[in-house]
Structures are given as C-alpha cells and as structure tokens.
C-alpha cells in the first residue's frame, strides 16, 4: 500500500503562517500521534492535508500522486478520510443513515455496527438524540465503514470523559492493524502516544520533535521541551 | 365564495409548487431563492417568443422554455456553488435578489413591458362542484403540487441520492470530506427547482396576470406558503400554497375586500413571523 507524504507544507491564516515547512510520512498500518500546545497549528495541518484549507506552499502526495491541488472529494476518493474536531455527525440522520453514507454495502454496515454494540441498539435513532460519546462513536464508525487508507483524527476526545475516550482508542488501534495509516491529533498526549508508533510534536507551527512515540513517552523532559519549542 | 375559492385553487397550486421549490432550496442548498419564479417567468417568455415569432409549435416552445428555465437556475446555482460555497445563507440569498431584478429588466428589454400572448397548454373545464366549474389547470396544478411534494419526500428519504443531499445540507464540509460531491448535487437541485418552476408557471400563466413583474413576484405568496412550513416541511408548504390561493380567490369575490387579496401574502408573512417569535418574546418577558 502507498504512503501519504507531506513535504514542506506551509499554511497561512489571516496575517501569517500557522504551519511552516512541515513534512512527514504516514505509513500503512502505523499510528502517528501529532501533539502540541493549543494554537500550535495541528488542526490547520490536518485541514491542509484533507483540502479544507489550501496549502500556501509544499505538497501532499499519496504514493506518486500529488494531491495538493485536488478537491476534498477527489482526496476522499483516493482513500483519505478526515474526522473533524467536535462531533461531526449529521444530526438529522439516523445512526444507520450516517453509516450508509460511507459503507457501500449493507454487510459492511452490519460489520461496523458489530464493532459498536452501543450504536447497534440505537441504529434507528437520529444522531442528534445520542450522547456525546455515542455521537463520536458514530463519527468513528462512519469513517471505518469507508475503509479509508489514510485517516486523520482531530481531537476525538474533545468534550468526552476520559473513560469514554479510552473506550474508543482500541478501535483506532484495530483499524491501523487492518492496514490504515492514521494521524492522531489528541489533547490526552500520553494516551495518544501510548497507542502510536510514531510521534510529531509541533509548536508555533514548526516541528520540534519527530521520531518514536515510545521514546517520547519514556522521556517526559523531551516532550516538555518540544512543547515549549526548544 | 366557493366559486372564488375554487377559482383560487389554480393559483394555490402554483404557489404550492413554488413553495416546495423554495423549501427544497432552503433545506438543501441554503438559499432563499428570490429569483425562483423570475427564472420561470424568463423561460416562459422565451417560449412565447419562440412560438409567436419563430413559429415553433406551442408544445416544443414550452419544452425549450422549461429547459431554459432549468438551465438558468443551474447556471445561477453553479455560480453560487463556485464563488459563494462558504458564504452564509443571507449573502447567498442576496445574490438571488440581484438576479430577480436582472431578469425582470432583461425581460423588459427583450420582450417589452406588456403581458405576453401565452397559448394555453391546458384549456377548458375538468368537472363541476355544485355548479361551480373546476378547470383543468386547477386540477393539474393541485395534483402536480401534491405529487411533487410526495416525490421529493420519497427521493430524500428512500434513495442514496436523497441521503447525500440531506447530509450535504446539514454539514457541507463534512459531506465533501466523505467524498460527497457538493457542487454537482447543489447544481442538480437548482436545475430541478428551475425546471419545476418554469413548468408550473407555463401551465398557469395563460390564465393569470402574466406581465414580467407579476410572474416574478409570485415568489412573495410562495414564500408565505413556504414560511408556514418553516422552509423545512414540504407538506405544510403545499397546504400553505393551496390555502393561500383559495383565500385570495374567496376574498376577491367580496367587493369591499377584493383589494385585500393583493396584500394577503404579506399579511400572512408578517403574521407567521410574529407567531414564530412568540417564544422569544415570552422568554424575554419572563
């Protein structure tokens, strides 16, 4: 399977760049934790990769295909999925309808629902009526149903109790074990690093650490200085 | 009174179809399309011109007009989807006001400011109720409004195309990130509502005031009907359109009140807006 390569990406919002000259590669079957302080530019980086915002400079490639100028739809068709910050459910649609949007076949819907028994029980409920944790499960399940090759996850834990978040993390690991490359942006740094093989720390729009997630987890001082951009 | 009410049903069916179109536009592509009936008017005027000056048979000219109405609407949808994709509903709707004025002006320039010599597509009575004749136009427009509303509801709830449209209307960016093509779907909605508006206007225009301004301003009673359903519910939009048409027809029968029929849509709009704000007023009072 191809890798997703980000090379020299710069993203500008308003007056100046919020991401400067960032590059990394997402390999199939591996989880990469992208961590950093608030306002470091993590969300902007994900949005530039998926095409929500344009990149001012640099390139994004899937294998040998340059996708920097591709539309969001074209990127999605190449296997790139982006779970946005917050609970990006379609509130007027039921759980089943949310899943049908990405699962091309009925067996795939059932397969995904089997992974989330909580959702299976409420399959015909409008997602607006679900709890925050259940809504985030819908978003995750919907992404899984599409079988993307590359999955960008932005702050999945936002607004959720840690216990709910820890229930969702094994699903991310499972999905990576099926061959997907995952970029995980997370405020619960230690939990994210705990399930990741690779780590990137960004601070003020620049990469301050790039390497093994376990090394970073084992050396808190490195993590601390990377957060401070040292 | 009954005769007036039944006579008003043809206009009511027209309002209902236009209200369904407005509701679909508001729900699915986040626009209150003030040019909804103006695109229909322009398509119909071109059809009349083709029929009178080029000698095209009425049916062929009407088909060309309907396709043109749909095409104009699709072009406007393409422009808005391309350059105002991220704009709010107010900005997107404001553009349609400009198009409304543009189409009225263009029709004055191209076709003059007099009513056009429409050839009726449907003519004659369908049946009588207590001696009151119900025309074919009335039957067709009422049936058309109900069929279109039911068809749209089925499309939105039973098909994958409808599911994608509903997703797009709720979270456009998220839908695009999932590979749902926003622009082609939005343009399809614009085109379909343009086709329907032109079709229904071409049926009813020969029996109504059919100058450019009157036809373009049909968007006002249609908006009143759509407002009854909160620009969300197709069934209430149809009911609103039919009831408004009947009420206008009934009022027209009373000499002392006949002039009120022109203001009725405005009164309905004001009344519904005040009614929709009652909760906020109550909350503030508490």
UniProtKB/TrEMBL annotation, chain A:
Offer an example of a GO molecular function term for this protein: ATP binding
Q: Which Gene3D superfamilies match?
A: P-loop containing nucleotide triphosphate hydrolases
Task: State whether keyword Ion transport applies.
Answer: no
Q: What InterPro entries does the entry give?
A: AAA+_ATPase (IPR003593), ABC_transporter-like_ATP-bd (IPR003439), ABC_transporter-like_CS (IPR017871), BCAA_Transport_ATP-bd_LivF (IPR052156), P-loop_NTPase (IPR027417)
- Keywords in alphabetical order: Amino-acid transport, ATP-binding, Nucleotide-binding, Transport
Show where the ABC transporter domain sits. 4-229
Query: SMART domains from the entry?
Result: AAA
Q: Which PANTHER family match?
A: HIGH-AFFINITY BRANCHED-CHAIN AMINO ACID TRANSPORT ATP-BINDING PROTEIN LIVF (PTHR43820)
Q: Which family does it belong to?
A: Belongs to the ABC transporter superfamily.
Q: What is this protein called?
A: Amino acid/amide ABC transporter ATP-binding protein 2, HAAT family (TC 3.A.1.4.-)
From TrEMBL, chain B:
- Which CDD domains does this one have? TM_PBP1_LivH_like
Instruction: For this UniProt record, give its keywords in alphabetical order, as a comma-separated list.
Output: Amino-acid transport, Cell membrane, Membrane, Transmembrane, Transmembrane helix, Transport
Annotated membrane-spanning segments are 6-24, 31-52, 58-81, 93-112, 132-156, 185-206, 212-229, 236-253, 259-276
- Its membrane topology: Multi-pass membrane protein
What Pfam families does the database record attribute to this sequence?
A: BPD_transp_2
Q: Which domain of life is it from?
A: Bacteria
Question: What compartments host this protein?
Answer: Cell membrane
Q: Give the family this protein belongs to, as stated in its UniProt record.
A: Belongs to the binding-protein-dependent transport system permease family. LivHM subfamily.
Name of this protein:
Amino acid/amide ABC transporter membrane protein 1, HAAT family (TC 3.A.1.4.-)
Originating organism:
Actinokineospora diospyrosa
